[in-house]
Amino acid sequence: MKKATKTIATFTLGLSILLGGTVAISPATTHAASASNVVSIGMHYMGTPYRYGSTTGNARTFDCSSFTQTVFKQAGVNLPRSSSAQSHVGRFVPRSQLQPGDLVFFYSPIHHVGIYIGNGKVLHTYGSPGVTISDMNSGWWSRNFATARRVL
């Protein structure tokens, strides 16, 4: 696996140089993407403050989609920036078949995204708690669930 990761990193760097761009390669972006890895990375950010419009690459504050984008990038999966755009990647998953690591979306049209962590819980960020865990099976989160996508 290490040889394949090194080959991919070398190819990406070479392609970036060829196209005149730059690429940053760090150990955090070379892990194999797995549900447990995604959840573990996301949990690392518990309590990180929420700020609407947080910039990509900033891990001091997040909005919902910069949070999921950052977590998945560190697991080796690139996601688009907005929750709406993220709701079109991967494949549709019925609510009854959610698995840890799935992206879950709220509102219609889509305005919020989080990471399903199992047992009806979603890891996400909003308002005052910042990165937190909420119960998707009750209250607002249950009423406003829209769809889910599997990208792993």
How does this model look, in words?
The protein has 152 residues and is α+β, with helices and mostly antiparallel strands. It folds into 2 domains: 1-30, no CATH class; 32-150, endopeptidase domain like (from Nostoc punctiforme) (endopeptidase fold (from Nostoc punctiforme), Alpha-Beta Complex), CATH 3.90.1720.10. Helix content is 32%, strand content 20%. Strands 1-6-2-3-4-5 form a 6-stranded antiparallel beta sheet. Strand 2 and strand 3 form a beta hairpin. The model is unreliable at 1-31 (pLDDT under 50).
Number of domains: 2
Which CATH class of the largest domain?
A: Alpha Beta
Beta percentage is: 15-25%
Q: Please give the largest β-sheet.
A: 6 strands, antiparallel
CATH topology of the largest domain: endopeptidase fold (from Nostoc punctiforme)
Give the overall pLDDT as a whole number: 84
Q: What structural class do the secondary elements suggest?
A: alpha+beta
Within the largest sheet, what's the order of strands? 1-6-2-3-4-5
Quaternary organization:
single chain
| Number of DSSP-assigned strands | 6
Family: Belongs to the peptidase C40 family.
Domain NlpC/P60: 32-152
Pfam families: NLPC_P60
Keywords: Hydrolase, Protease, Signal, Thiol protease
Quick recap:
With 152 residues, the chain is of the alpha+beta class. The protein contains 5 helices and 6 strands.
Question: What is this structure's SSE topology?
Answer:
Layout lengths: L1 H18 L15 H10 L19 H11 L8 H4 L4 E2 L10 E4 L5 E7 L2 E6 L3 E6 L3 H5 L1 E6 L2
Antiparallel strand pairs: 1-6, 2-3, 2-6, 3-4, 4-5
Helix pairs in contact: 2-3
